[in-house]
Design goal:
The chain has 217 residues and is of the alpha+beta class. Helix content is 53%, strand content 18%. It has four helices and six strands; from the N terminus they run αααββββαββ. The strands form two sheets. The chain has a four-stranded antiparallel beta sheet with strand order 3-2-1-4, covered by helices on one side. Strands 5-6 form a two-stranded antiparallel sheet. Strand 2 and strand 3 form a beta hairpin. Helix 1 packs antiparallel against helix 4. The radius of gyration is 25 Å and the shape is elongated.
């Protein structure tokens, strides 16, 4: 009876962790879009910690490393959903303009060196959320770029060639699917075989699980 209850709790926990992946990913993006970015960030932190705790409870202590890797993967999916959200906003309510670069920030030390460029409209007013990425030293201050931006500043400005809703959503869906499959597979393994056992480590004066020699010289 106790084993059956434990099995049901494991199934429920694994199911909740799997469901939390798409709900958390898309829910946080909707929250940041229509309510508050700060609140979404805070809730995302809470969800991340809860995710780690949940995976550790599912798999055991070894699940801590699995959970950290999973949160990193989930963060990538979240970023792609935000990119897909921005593409929708820019395609529906965005404004296309010829913007002037007012500042360039180079990042030559990055793994993939690039630059970011701050933009202003033809009257010199900074474009809302108007910082775009480009190749390292690919533009200079004073150059003009054709961009599409969101007047509300919710979506980040992009050049028209960088707006690709299908690609962003496909990457996000792929990352979420991998994460859901991995957690679901862990849940099935635990239900069938139980939690993975920790490898016993030697201790001074004896080995875990064996009595120490009580004889003294």
């Amino acid at each position: 009876m106790a084993r059956e209850r434990s099995r049901r709790r494991t199934i429920a926990l694994a199911g909740a962790l799997v469901a939390a992946v798409p709900v958390g990913t898309f829910g946080l993006v909707l929250l940041s879009t229509y309510v508050s970015g700060g609140l979404a960030w805070l809730l995302g932190l809470v969800v991340g910690v809860a995710w780690i705790v949940g995976v550790v409870r599912l798999v055991g202590v070894v699940g801590c490393w699995v959970a950290i890797l999973s949160v990193a993967l989930w963060g990538g999916a979240l970023g792609e959903v935000i990119a897909a959200r921005d593409a929708v906003v820019l395609n529906t309510t965005g404004v296309t303009t010829s913007a002037r670069i007012t500042a360039a920030h180079d990042h030559p030390e990055s793994k993939h060196p690039d630059s970011t460029y701050d933009l202003a409209d033809e009257w010199g007013v900074p474009i809302p959320n108007g910082t775009v990425y480009g190749g390292l030293h690919s533009h200079a201050v004073g150059d003009r770029l054709t961009v599409r931006y969101d007047p509300r500043g919710v979506a980040a400005a992009r050049t028209p060639d960088d707006i690709d809703f299908s690609k962003d959503l496909a990457i996000a869906g792929g990352l979420d699917a991998v994460l859901m499959a991995a957690v679901g597979g862990l849940g099935v393994a635990v239900v069938r075989n139980g939690r993975p056992r920790r490898v016993p480590f030697s201790r001074v004066g004896g080995v875990r699980g064996t009595p120490r020699d009580s004889a003294h010289p």
